[in-house]
Specification:
alpha/beta, Rossmann fold, five-stranded parallel sheet, 15 helices
């Protein structure tokens, strides 16, 4: 499917077919990542559509999505592979029983470290199941050691398992890394990737996203929600709302049967778009300005 996409504009149309409205910058970055077979490093504020881009690429290109959610303390065993120790132990006992209590230690050891007992985690699955989309989500939550571990995979589409040797992808996965920039990612990792910074959508694009994702949403309410969210992003909040919060807010208003955003309905539903009590208090004190 990726070979059939001949331009960024065509990729944008393909993404549009699954409800992801990509601007020219995003479409170009993703197209180049596909054609150049390079990882795409997407950075930006939370809620700007970084993870959604990987999901949309998977859906629109009809490729399986393999997701690695990064977190503090993640290591190679969680990301790449583990050995199935309980099954290995049962296997040793079976060999010992078959040999009437005598065990050829060297042969037994060789039989333990085979693919039969290998538990593939997301990174190894992406290499062995390609073509696919590999999403390495929130890489900024991982530590320096994990970044260094990723370098061979990003460089060569291969990893080394000491007991088995090198595992190389027959076809490179389409890799998308995301970061909310809670810390700086090292240059060594960024050098191996194409880079794109995602901004929040402009007002017209956010209205289009709302109406595309929720066909029952009227134009007036879509404009009111998008305008209010844009004003919220300009306020000094602990957590500015992203597109996901815009969608939740519009959905909440529709669920309550509202066809316009007024002060009363906004006050009742602010918890769908703001997630800190300090932000709720600050905005409730300025509802008139928010909806003007």
């Amino acid at each position: 499917m990726t070979e059939a996409i001949s331009s960024p504009a065509e990729l944008a149309k393909t993404l549009d077919s699954v409800g992801y409205l990509a601007d020219d910058g995003v479409a170009t970055a993703a197209f180049l990542a596909m054609r150049m077979q390079r990882p795409l490093f997407c950075e930006g504020e939370p809620g700007t559509g970084k993870t959604a881009l990987a999901l949309a690429l998977s859906q629109s290109l009809k490729l399986p999505l393999i997701r690695l959610q990064c977190h503090e303390g993640i290591d190679a065993a969680q990301a790449l592979y583990e050995w199935d120790f309980p099954r290995q132990l049962l296997h040793l006992r079976a060999l010992e029983a078959a040999g009437d209590g005598h065990l050829d230690v060297e042969a037994a050891e060789q039989s333990l470290y085979t693919e039969r007992f290998l538990l593939a985690r997301p990174l190894l699955r992406a290499l062995t199941e390609a073509p696919c989309v590999l999403l390495i989500d929130e890489i900024d939550r991982a530590d320096d050691e994990f970044e260094a571990f990723l370098l061979q995979l990003l460089d060569e589409n291969a990893v080394t398992i000491p007991e088995l040797g090198e595992v190389r992808a027959a076809q490179p996965p389409l890799v998308v890394l995301t970061s909310n920039r809670t810390r700086e990612v090292h240059d060594a990792l960024k050098r191996r990737c194409l880079y794109h910074w995602l901004e929040h959508p402009d007002l017209a694009q956010e209205v289009a996203i709302l109406r595309r994702r929720m066909p029952l949403l009227g134009e007036r309410l879509a404009n009111q929600v998008a305008s209010a969210v844009h004003r919220l992003r300009q306020m000094e909040l602990l957590k500015a709302p992203g597109v996901a919060e815009s969608l939740d807010w519009a959905n909440a208003l529709l669920t309550l049967g509202r066809d316009e955003l007024d002060a009363a309905s906004a006050a009742r539903t602010l918890g769908t778009v703001l997630k800190y009590s300090e932000d709720l208090d600050r905005v409730r004190a300025k509802l008139d300005a928010l909806l003007s």
